[in-house]
Design brief:
The chain is of the alpha/beta class and 447 residues long. The protein is built from 15 helices and 8 strands. Bound molecules: zinc ion.
């Protein structure tokens, strides 16, 4: 039997775009949406049409440009919002209206100033209205994880009866923890009447660094859609990171026997495109797509990696689209490139010694087209054994000295075997961020 399929709902263009500095103009959203299509996500949440004319135009443009995925538009539980969402989705082949209304007492009392009964009625009416425009309607009880469970179930039953097809359970404030969120999903699946006919979805924020863990535990307890963003961008500490969700499901299929339609080798290119568009860099140690995610620095790791990558690598860089080292050495490479690569591999030579390495290198490069790291390491060891190894402590103190001297960048890491040591300099930040900040409204509602 095939393992169950998880719908990947990408909200980079909506929730992600709400994070500070991440706003995108219409063209940029379309560009990213095309890449999300290549990545193979099932749903693209393209925006929040009532929020601004720019958001409305972006949803329209994405819907027209990308026909394959479901295109979702967000709306508050109000007639005008839902109508605007529906209009923006006019060109979508597979439109979805995503309606949200807060359900926690703290939001009902302090933000919406409505009673619980009014909340149930408004949620159901809004979903009923959305269904008059669209067969695919998602409902989110905002702040679900701080909502009294019995009341949450009541709201969910009402919106199912009104025609909702997906029930999204947002951890809006990033408050829940895995065991609790698993229990909530299980209880929804077991106790909400009519739930067997709809899809349960997770939408976790990362305020405690638990967004991915919570999403996975949601899946294990019956959720079949995960809402997430590229690079984990989103309100405050961000959303569950799409690349971490997808690769967790793939690498640990023994524990999470679920499929997604994501082409994992497009993860890194998508991450890079988002970084380029927003100008917001990915932290170097970010899982899956960070600069150091596949860099092996320690000597013992290097040795193990050379013998068998599986010693320290649970997935290959290629599987997520990270290219192998960009620095290709061939017979046209000069002494400098050779010297640099030797240093990256952990060896340093004086001028005269380098001449000898270079002589051997040219002979080899004449015979084989491309000199890979393992060739070079063999060559170096043949010539000088381990005598020119850079001691790790010396490297650290040199880095400290460089920082103290105001160097802009740290010197290269000493032992990045099999690591894409150069990819961080390719294609980054080529678009200035300044032009993005014109459209963003002071409009921080959302799930
Ligand atoms: Zn959110």
């Amino acid at each position: 039997m095939d393992s169950p399929r998880i719908t990947i709902f990408d909200t980079t263009l909506r929730d992600g775009e709400q994070s500070p500095g991440c706003s995108m103009n219409v063209q940029e959203k379309v560009r990213l949406a095309r890449q999300l299509d290549r990545l193979g996500v099932d749903v693209i949440e393209a925006g929040f049409p009532i929020a601004s004319d720019g958001d409305f135009a972006a949803v329209q443009a994405v819907a027209a440009a990308v026909p394959r995925p479901v295109i979702a538009a967000l709306a508050r539980a109000a007639r005008h919002d839902i109508e605007r969402a529906s209009q923006a989705l006019g060109a979508a082949v597979r439109p979805r209206i995503h309606v949200f209304l807060a359900t926690s007492d703290i939001h009902l009392q302090h933000k919406l100033r409505i009673s619980r009964q009014q909340c149930v009625d408004q949620a159901a009416e809004s979903v009923r209205l959305a269904r008059t425009f669209c067969d695919d309607v998602e409902f989110s009880p905002e702040d679900a994880t701080r909502t009294e469970p019995e009341f949450l179930f009541q709201v969910l039953e009402a919106v199912i009866q009104a025609g909702a097809t997906t029930l999204n359970i947002p951890d809006t404030v990033g408050y829940t923890v895995p065991a609790e969120f698993g229990e909530l999903n299980r209880n929804i699946r077991e106790r909400v009447r009519g739930v067997e006919g709809v899809t349960i979805s997770t939408h976790c924020h990362n305020d405690l660094g638990l967004a991915v863990a919570n999403s996975l535990v949601g899946v294990a307890n019956g959720a079949r859609q995960v809402e997430c963003t590229i690079n984990g961008i989103g309100e405050r500490a961000g959303n569950a990171s799409l690349e971490e969700i997808v690769m967790s499901l793939r690498v640990r299929a023994d524990r999470y026997p679920y499929q997604t339609s994501v082409a994992s080798e497009e993860l890194y290119p998508t991450s890079q495109l988002l970084e380029e568009i927003t100008g917001i860099p990915v932290q170097p140690n970010k899982a899956i797509i960070g600069r150091n995610a596949f860099a092996h620095e320690a000597g013992i790791h290097q040795d193990g990696m050379l013998k068998n990558r599986l010693t320290y690598e649970i997935m290959t860089p290629q599987s997520v689209g990270v290219p192998d080292s960009k620095l290709v050495l061939g017979k046209h490479s000069g002494r400098h490139a050779l010297s640099l690569r030797c240093e990256q591999l952990g060896y340093r030579f004086e001028r005269r010694e380098l001449d000898e390495i270079y002589r051997r290198f040219v002979v080899l490069a004449d015979q084989i087209k491309t000199v890979h790291d393992h060739h070079l390491l063999e060559l170096v060891r043949e010539a000088y054994g381990e005598s020119h190894r850079i001691p790790p402590r010396r490297v650290e103190s040199e880095q400290a000295a460089a920082v103290a001297a105001g160097a802009e960048e740290l010197p290269r890491k000493p032992f990045p075997v099999g690591a894409p040591s150069d990819f961080s300099v390719i294609g980054l930040n080529t678009v200035p961020a300044s032009e993005h900040n014109l459209e963003q409204e002071d409009y921080l509602w959302g799930v």
